[in-house]
Amino acid sequence: MSKLSFKELLDAGVHFGHLKRKWNPAMAPYIFEEKKGIHIIDLNKTLVHLEQANAAMKQIAKSGKKILFVATKKQAKDIVAERIKNVNMPFVTERWSGGMLTNFQTTRKSIRKMTSIDKMKSDGTWDTLNKREKLFKTRQREKLEKTFGSIADMTRQPAAIFIVDILKEHIALAEARRLNIPTFALVDTNSNPKLVDFPIPANDDASKSITIIIDEICKSIQEGLEERKNLKANPEAADAKAPKTEEKASVKAAEVIEETEEKATVKSEVKAEKIEAPAKEETSEKAAPKAKATKKEAKEEKVATKKPAAKKAAAKKPAAKKTPAAKVVKEEK
């Protein structure tokens, strides 16, 4: 894999960060120094993190899974669209509609609408429509193409997501984290790198810095796709040994993917426990009346045992009345 040099990153302006007053303290490990009120990113750490991200991307592409690229800002929109088309990966460059990942079924429905309009044109049913209906369908098709045209081939949720500027694309990042999808991102000095699994500290505002990093990532994806083709052609051929840096990065990628799977399983188990909890409460409520019934029976038994004692006391009363009768007989005598 071709590595970028320190000078190439420096010439592209990858080291320029934001103003000191706009910085995020979580980016402190990736900042080299402050110059004229502007933070400068440590390019040595950028190279290390870029190598890790490249190795992880290569492994995902090699496994045949899709990586979704998100970049809606003006500087990155055209660059991402041009580069990612060559790699046959899905991308979003116009607008991130809320719930694109978390509510993926509805996005698939809108994509089906778009394909159904295309079928109407090929079947011949398009000619049977009125002028007004045709106008409505064409406008609907254009709107859907703008938002969902680039992800029309994405039949399932992506294996990973790459974001340019996580502050602007905070909804996409939140959805990916909620679904435990591994995240890759260009992280500037004003954003939090702890929210991303594979952060690449770099300038996300300059078009040159975005192009140099996106090109490098596209190369790694292309290599992964080529290796997949070679493995399909020659399944018996053994893979060549990768360098240590690539091995470490691939191990890290595997660990992150395992962690995301574990989180998903834990969430499902927690949901199952929550569902079982009300059932247990119902059983306890059913058992409670039985316990009350047993308590009532015990009280009744105690009362039953006490009643004979009360009768004995009532039987002694007439004996007390006999004594005055004896006295009356003596007086008469």
Write up this protein.
With about 325 residues, this protein is of the alpha/beta class. The chain has a domain of about 180 residues: Glucose-6-phosphate isomerase like protein, domain 1 (Rossmann fold), CATH 3.40.50.10490. About 60% of the residues lie in helices and about 10% in strands. It is built from 8 helices and 8 strands. It has a 5-stranded parallel β-sheet with strand order 5-4-6-7-8, sandwiched between helices. A 3-stranded antiparallel β-sheet has the order 1-3-2. Helix 2 packs across helix 8 and helix 4 crosses helix 5. The protein is globular, with a radius of gyration of 38 Å.
CATH topology name of the domain at 6-101 and 157-240: Rossmann fold
What structural class do you assign from the helix and strand content? alpha/beta
Beta strand %: 5-15%
What distance lies between the first and last C-alpha atoms, to the nearest angstrom? 139 Å
CATH architecture of the domain at 6-101 and 157-240: 3-Layer(aba) Sandwich
Anisotropy-based shape? globular
Query: How is the main sheet built?
Result: 5 strands, parallel
CATH superfamily of the domain at 6-101 and 157-240: Glucose-6-phosphate isomerase like protein, domain 1
Low-confidence runs of at least 5 consecutive residues: 238-243, 287-291, 306-333
Mean pLDDT: 78
